[in-house]
Amino acid sequence: LFYWQRCGLGIQQINPAVLVQPIASAIAAGELKTNAGAAWEIQATCGLGMSLTRGENIPDYYQVQPETGAVKFQRLGYKTLAYNLKAGDEEPKEKPQTRNWTASLIPDSAFLLPDFANSCVEVLALGETAQTEYILEQSQLQKIIELTKKATAEFDSDLILKWTIDQTANSDELQFYFTQLRLLKGGKVPLIESKSIAPARIPAILRGLAAASGKAEAIAQVMTNFHPENAEFLAGSILVARTIEPNWLPWLKVAAGVVAEEGGLTAHGAILARELGIPAVVGVAGATRAIETGDWVLVDGDSGEVFATAQQDAIEKPDSNQLRDTATNADIQSTAAKMSIANYQLSSSDRSSNPASQPRRAEFAESVAPTATQLLVNVSQTSSIDRLKNLPIDGIGLLRSELMALEALDCQNPKVLLQEGRRSEFVDRMADCLTLFAAAVSPQPIFYRSLDLRESGTDGSFSYTFEPELFDWELSVLKKVCESGYKNVNLILPFVRSVEEFVYCQQRLETIWKNRPAQFQLWIMAEVPSVLFLLPDYVKAGVQGISIGTNDLTQFLLGIHRNSEQVASGFYGRDRAVMRAIEQLIRQAQAADIPCSICGDATALYPEIVESLVRWGISSISVNVDAVEQTCRAIARAEQRLLMQAARSIINN
User: What's the CA dihedral at 644, 645, 646, 648 to 10 degrees?
Assistant: First the structure.
């Protein structure tokens, strides 16, 4: 309306129309995507399609051969909620219509359903049947395929169809409806030949793994030099490279987005991109060949797609003078000034320090009901501190020291400082950085994970046993921060393989820092599978808590490299072996009466596992800042479900 008004168009000239569709309580709903010459994709969930649209359920998924109706592939979803219509005041309050699945009504909750608190929609908690069985029967699936064939005959295009199934009153007859239709591409329109536009060098689209959410459109810069100190990067451009190294932090801080040929969702480059709030797509085959420096591209970190945009033809490649504004020759703290160089656009939620999001976060925090399960955050960059404000968190569950050191030491390798004997510089700079985090959440706890540089195959605490001096320096950092007044700092040892390694590190701690505060705790990361068999021994040796690192635990249980895009589909944090290992660790920790946290990316990538974690008795869940709200709601739903189950059990007994 505003646009029409600005154009001087009267309402009579537009002849607007309002489309009104009836809605009924649904048995199932979902989406079907046709694909000429290939399998059709079908998603299905219980009730109305809102749980699918809102991302609260993982739908059942099918690939079908349209000609025969044969199911080529199917995967069971994870469905915990269903939406349906409330009964009107004049209508009898009957049990919700739930063919093939059982459900119970969840009372209205402004926290769980802020968008539907005063609407005609109610939310149902699904029973076990809906979570362990497919929602669609074979006959229903075939009916959807049959109706879709009729729809595709009307359009010379692939379609996305939203469908719903309901049941007529006083009848067993099912009614199938298409509620929305969208063309994926236009019909066959004759092409108009134009010689004024040069053929595009870049494919219309590149695909990879969606590693960090958001969208960014800017000039691309392809980087082949792996050393930031020896290369120049145009601030505000899209960083395109074969792989993203953690020591590229100066570039990442001023980049609009990231495209990488290699790497998985749990690689350090992807983790940094998520924390910095820049969109990233990894595992994009041939990106450095398909894209050239100076091309204008759009990175979609939500869909994992990279587009060549029309603006590229009007943009000249930056010359060497433009490239002088680099991360090495400019103050990287003046990020906003550098961003204006490329005149790129970011979605409002992309940059970590977006002030517009603060009121919304405050409103969210005020609406949060207390939960028994603690919610913590994973951080490493001081730029994340502002994002912690007004979030309902109980502290910092994982401070990745090796990533924090990139910022604190200006990307110098800590071992270089060690070799040059620059102890006081290391301790002072690391302590200054750690103090900022400790102050931000005080008096809530912060768990500092000591350096895991992973050089020459010497991962984690094993490296401390033959090179203890750097670990001693870190202990001095913790001591200095604590003595400055922040006694909320705790230590997590990374990648512990054996009880002997832990005992050695514990002895170093006793030597360097004898007079520790009573509340100081020494934990270990539970990421090497040996901890599954040795946890009681660790506790006897003095371990006071564990934090499950799902990224490495998944890698070593399944034998799949976490950073490999070739086997990314096999790196599955919901694998039964992984989930059973996590359950075993939680229950062992309970038996030993020590806290158990989980801090990998699994809870953000697979939010549906939160309910299982809560049911097993997890003490705390630590996630990246951008996953806090999603995880907070998941914890609340899980705890409410447990309370409902307990209440039913009492009533039935």
Answer: 90
